[in-house]
């Protein structure tokens, strides 16, 4: 969704090919691919199923439960965390120091246009858009781009740890409350309707384009305001963390190998914890409040170490000359991250929406949705290098830059 712009001196200009950081492009490509794996369920099934897996019309036994476990353990929140970190890097690279008024103005224009594109994407294509959140949060994060790495680390990690503690602590305490209090509190937290909402949403998505658009708008009105209120603090903290990691050289492969190996080890431990936790959710049939409290701690506290472990592994692979070349298609996919993110939405909604696509909404289970994910991964890994062999940037990257710079920008320049 974002693109890396190199530091500019005399004139504002897009990044030159030779100025790009391969590691950032690879990580961005992995981020786009991982986000699709998580979003696939929200494309093909009603939002209540995404929020509460036990509401799935296909059940959660056997392969269906395993497919959920794989996504939740290896992908959920890890790749959006990675992408938020990388968005913070882009804010830093585009905007430069706060004293640079010209680049600061360019950054604000880019965020402003991203906000517009996010609104259009969410309202007209898919309600689960993240661009609106990134644009709004970016206007806050840009104020910190001149902070020292120490201050960025301190603020970001404090906010993340405090927020995670506040998210799980009340639910853990709730487990000790009397049963009637637990029932009352959980009833207030649970969306009314349950399975009936799944049935009605599925019917609406199959009833033609006007009905599908109305259902999409309904979901957008539920998700986006809540996202701007609930997730803005976490997203901003991750953006600041991204700035700190870039300033210290971690994201460009300049840290000590021992640092990367340590984070890989911590990430592995986090995956083990997360996998056990998700297994317990399945075993207890997502019993609440346990599923949101004691069995949600790894989601809150291990997702970041896992993400940094993934990044560390990718960076070490990039360092290896024998393996680095194999990552070039991923890097090209990441270089066109904005285009590929929006393309994923277009392809998936064309497959599932009625009125403008095949109308298969609600017909694919989680295992079958994985087939869609892998097919789109393959398509984007092929088409991104082909496009960039002729043009300097992806089509949406060109549009975004054209809008931000306010002047002509040749696609092949």
Automatic annotation (TrEMBL):
It holds the Pfam family DUF418. It comes from the Bacteria. Keywords: Membrane, Transmembrane, Transmembrane helix. The chain crosses the membrane at residues 26-46, 66-93, 113-140, 152-174, 226-246, 258-276, 296-318, 338-355, 367-388. This is DUF418 domain-containing protein. The keyword Transmembrane applies. Residues 245-407 form the DUF418 domain. The keyword Hydrolase does not apply.
């Amino acid at each position: 969704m974002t693109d890396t712009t190199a530091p500019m001196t005399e004139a504002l200009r897009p990044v030159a090919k030779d100025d790009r950081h391969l590691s950032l492009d690879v990580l961005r490509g992995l981020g786009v691919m991982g986000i699709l794996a998580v979003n696939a369920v929200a494309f093909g099934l009603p939002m209540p199923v995404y929020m509460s897996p036990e509401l799935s019309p296909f059940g959660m036994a056997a392969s269906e439960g395993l497919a959920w476990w794989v996504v939740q353990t290896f992908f959920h929140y890890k790749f959006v965390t990675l992408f938020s970190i990388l968005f913070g890097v882009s804010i830093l690279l585009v905007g430069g120091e706060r004293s640079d008024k010209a680049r600061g103005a360019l950054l604000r224009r880019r965020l402003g246009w991203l906000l517009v594109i996010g609104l259009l994407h969410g309202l007209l294509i898919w309600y689960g858009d993240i661009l609106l959140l990134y644009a709004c949060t970016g206007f806050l994060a840009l104020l910190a781009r001149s902070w020292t790495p120490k201050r960025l680390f301190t603020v970001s990690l404090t906010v993340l740890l405090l927020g995670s503690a506040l998210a799980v602590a009340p639910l853990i305490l709730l487990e000790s409350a009397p049963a009637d209090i637990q029932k009352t509190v959980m009833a207030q937290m649970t969306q009314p309707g349950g399975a009936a909402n799944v049935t009605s949403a599925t019917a609406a998505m199959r009833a033609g384009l006007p009905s599908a658009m109305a259902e999409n708008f309904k979901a957008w009105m539920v998700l986006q305001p809540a996202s701007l209120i609930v997730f803005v603090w976490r997203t901003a903290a991750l953006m600041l963390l991204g700035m700190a990691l870039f300033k210290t050289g971690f994201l460009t492969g300049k840290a000590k190998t021992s640092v990367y190996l340590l984070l890989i080890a911590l990430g592995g431990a986090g995956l083990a914890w997360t996998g056990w936790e998700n297994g317990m959710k399945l075993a207890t049939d997502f019993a609440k409040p346990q599923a949101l409290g004691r069995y949600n701690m790894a989601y809150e506290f291990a997702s970041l170490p896992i993400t940094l472990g993934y990044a560390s592994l990718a960076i070490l692979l990039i360092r290896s000359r024998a393996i680095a070349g194999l990552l070039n298609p991923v890097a090209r996919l990441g270089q066109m991250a904005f285009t590929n993110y929006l393309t994923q939405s277009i392809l998936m909604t064309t497959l599932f929406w009625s009125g403008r696509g095949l109308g298969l909404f609600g017909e694919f289970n989680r295992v079958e949705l994985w087939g869609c994910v892998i097919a789109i991964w393959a398509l984007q890994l092929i088409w991104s290098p082909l496009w960039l062999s002729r043009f300097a940037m992806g089509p949406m990257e060109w549009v975004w830059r054209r809008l931000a710079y306010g002047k002509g920008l040749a696609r092949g320049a």
